[in-house]
From TrEMBL:
Cofactor section: FMN
One Pfam entry name: Flavodoxin_2
Functional description taken from the UniProt entry: Also exhibits azoreductase activity. Catalyzes the reductive cleavage of the azo bond in aromatic azo compounds to the corresponding amines. Quinone reductase that provides resistance to thiol-specific stress caused by electrophilic quinones.
Enzyme Commission number(s) of this protein: 1.6.5.-, 1.7.1.17
InterPro entries the record matches: Flavodoxin_fold, Flavoprotein-like_sf, FMN-dep_NADH:Q_OxRdtase_AzoR1, NADH:quinone_OxRdtase_FMN_depd
Reactions catalysed: N,N-dimethyl-1,4-phenylenediamine + anthranilate + 2 NAD(+) = 2-(4-dimethylaminophenyl)diazenylbenzoate + 2 NADH + 2 H(+); 2 a quinone + NADH + H(+) = 2 a 1,4-benzosemiquinone + NAD(+)
Name of the protein described by the UniProt record: FMN dependent NADH:quinone oxidoreductase
Family stated for the protein in its record: Belongs to the azoreductase type 1 family.
Subunit composition and interactions: Homodimer.
Residues that coordinate or bind FMN: S16, S22, H23, S24, M102, Y103, N104, F105
Cofactor note: Binds 1 FMN per subunit.
Keywords: Flavoprotein, FMN, NAD, Oxidoreductase
Domain Flavodoxin-like fold: 10-202
Organism: Ottowia flava
């Protein structure tokens, strides 16, 4: 898979179990629309991790990860094929958009499965002098996060393992330019959630201030 440096690519990952009425998907729709407006020549690749969930890694996958390429058997090549494809897709993207609700204080399991497929030694990170160095340096990232309860910015902050976890994982593989757009209280009365709050819209409007050209 190749990508022209003059044609930006947005890789969008949705992970909410709800395909209808999902607040994280609605938030990502707004961000995607803003990205398209900023990059009319760009292309968007969507991956719905909830409806087409990546396989959880198993013993065969792990064996394939740690087997030299020239020694991979057909079975091990098959076990690592999804990882290979997901990593290649990530590396050609110029912007990564991850849409995720908080489930039990962390990420939905399909998103965790995708992470386990792409965080891979020798492909997305390496060790130099015992220290990890990320190998995925091209894309910037936007996290579209939704929280059922209000207060994760203050009194419930210690229970937020969604945003810090995603930021840490992306930093680990080399993605440093990370912006977050989030909404809280999505479990409230739907009437209170009509439309996008002004602060959220303002945050979205501030994204992608500089077109991606490399």
């Amino acid at each position: 898979m190749t990508a022209s440096p003059y044609r930006p690519m947005l890789l969008r990952l949705d992970s909410s179990a709800r395909t209808e009425g999902s607040h994280s998907r609605q938030l990502a729709d707004q961000i995607e629309a803003h990205w398209r407006a900023r990059h009319p020549d760009g292309r968007v690749q969507r991956r719905d991790l909830a409806t087409e969930a990546p396989p959880h890694i198993d013993a065969q996958t792990i064996a394939g990860f740690y087997t030299p390429p020239e020694q991979l058997s057909p079975a091990l090549r098959a076990a690592t094929a999804r990882s290979d494809a997901s990593i290649a897709e990530l590396k050609v993207a110029t912007t990564l958009l991850i849409a995720s609700p908080m489930y039990n204080f962390s990420v939905p399991s399909p998103l965790k499965a995708w992470i386990d497929q792409v965080v891979r030694a020798g492909h997305t990170f390496t060790l130099e002098g015992g220290r990890p160095r990320g190998l995925v340096e091209r894309p910037s990232a936007v996290l579209a996060l939704t929280y059922g309860l209000p207060g994760y910015g203050d009194q419930l902050a210690t229970l937020d393992h969604l945003r810090p976890y995603l930021q840490s994982v992306l930093n680990f593989i080399g993605i440093r330019d990370i912006q977050v757009v989030s909404t809280e209280g999505t479990a409230a009365d739907p009437a209170q959630l009509a439309g996008i709050p002004a602060a959220v819209k303002e945050r979205i409007d501030s994204l992608f201030s500089e077109p991606v050209t490399t």
